[in-house]
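for ur thesis appendix - PHD-type domain-containing protein. copy paste whatever u need, i formatted it the way the template wanted (i think)
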Amino acid sequence: MADSTVETNPNSQENRKKDEMENFEDEICALTSCETNLGRTALSCVTCHQWFHGSCVDVTREIADSMEQEGLKWSCNVCTAIFASPVLKKPFN
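the 3d part is after this line
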């Protein structure tokens, strides 16, 4: 007789999402004008690893979900500005 238990994959997208949600619920939004807990849609900058409310950085839940489905990463405005700087694009001599 077959065992009817179902094992869940600890690395599944759903489980990773739950872990991520638990990790940022007590974090504070990195946007200095906000300073509230992240208990809603939030994004982590892939460069500085700071958390931001989607609403604070103009990213809706739909956009965040679409980015996740496409495997796209998000960078905050500060990191984007720093790494888009012409100074950083010049080769070091």
